[in-house]
Design goal:
Number of helices: 12
Strand order of the largest sheet: 3-2-1-4-5
Number of strands: 10
Distance between the termini: 21 Å
Shape: globular
Helix content: 40-55%
Oligomer: single chain
Length: about 325
């Protein structure tokens, strides 16, 4: 029996999964993500190494590193920072020893999971946002996701930053006050409007993950009928649609129907409250479904998780003859 390791590491969360060549999941470890642009390489490698060890330790046996036939490591920013890519790949190859390694951007593993490696486009909207797709010939294209400071439009970070902006406008009268104003007051136990500045500067602005979490306040406001919050979600789906349409055009998919899927925290409610769940479905998923339908595309729920996509990429690279059966078994047992 051969074993394969899949790693999906985004800006906020990381997942490590071990599967066998038949597609059976043997171990799954969820951990925090990290910012490769800010963290030193040794910190990044240390986190990934620890995640791998925790994943293997919880597998039957447990299975050790020497038994792994191949690994796919999907990293945010991969392919964008050549010097750091070279550092991290060299360091992780030392950690993994004789294990075959396939490194890629986390947008590819999200696509491989959501569409199980079939032609089409996946839109990732988590801490960052990016569309990635492949066509029948295996040609790949991506759009968006350049950087959280000047790109990542439609992401949770982008919406978190816009939520900060909206609160400031409601606080000083540039916009009518809606539910978001009171939600922010309660969430941060503010004594006055300007305490918000200190809280953001001290605890949030320097962290992509924490700014992205502010999107949940916007979700709560939309669930209460805040028209300004709803408008921001509409703007976000416009941005995501542009990414999808750009990738589809690049790949020549617009000539016929094609599937579009999605992954990332934006598409999931951060609450069990029925109104919040309904708000995400209406203002994000249903809105995007309507827009991609105008392209002749069909928006479908993701078939598998991104970390399962990473595991399938590992099988594709190092045991391709097992890919179809492993994919079928993963779909059946998920």
């Amino acid at each position: 029996m051969q074993y394969f390791l899949g790693i999906d590491s985004g800006g906020s969360k990381a997942a490590y999964v071990l599967i066998d060549e038949e597609g059976a999941t043997l171990s799954l470890h969820l951990d925090v993500g990290y910012n490769r642009t800010a963290d030193p390489t040794d910190v990044t490698v240390g986190q990934i190494s620890a995640g791998i060890q925790k994943c293997l330790a919880s597998s039957p046996g447990p299975i050790n590193l020497a038994q792994i036939s191949g690994a796919c490591i999907g990293l945010s920013y991969y392919g964008e920072l050549s010097d750091k890519d070279a550092e991290i790949t060299a360091a992780l190859k030392e950690v993994l020893g004789e294990v075959g390694c396939y490194f890629t951007n986390d947008c590819e593993v999200a696509w491989a999971g959501s569409l199980v490696g079939k032609p089409g486009v996946n839109i990732v909207a988590g801490t960052g946002a990016m569309a990635y797709g492949q066509n029948e010939s295996g040609t790949a294209a991506r759009a968006g996701g350049w950087n959280h400071f000047f790109s990542d439009e439609g992401s949770c970070y982008w919406l978190g930053r816009r939520a900060m902006e909206l609160f400031s406008k409601e606080a000083d009268g540039r916009e009518p006050r809606g539910p978001l104003y009171d939600i922010v007051y309660q969430a941060f136990a503010l004594g006055n409007d300007y305490e918000f500045i200190v809280r953001m500067e001290q605890d949030y602005i320097g962290s992509r993950r924490k700014v992205a979490e502010l999107q949940l306040l916007l979700e709560a406001a939309a669930a209460q009928g805040d028209l300004a919050a709803v408008a921001l979600y509409e703007e976000a789906t416009d941005e995501l649609f542009t990414d999808i349409a750009t990738v589809a055009a690049t790949l020549g998919l617009l000539e016929g129907g094609f599937p579009v899927s999605y992954s990332g925290g934006l598409f999931r409610s951060g609450s069990q409250d029925a109104r919040a769940v309904a708000a995400k479905e209406k203002y994000v998923v249903a809105s995007l479904r309507k827009k991609v339908g105008a392209l002749g595309a069909t928006l479908q729920e993701p078939l598998l998780e991104p970390w399962q996509g990473a595991a399938l990429c590992a099988i594709r690279e190092f045991c391709p003859e097992a890919l179809n059966s492993a994919t079928a078994n993963l779909l059946q047992n998920t």
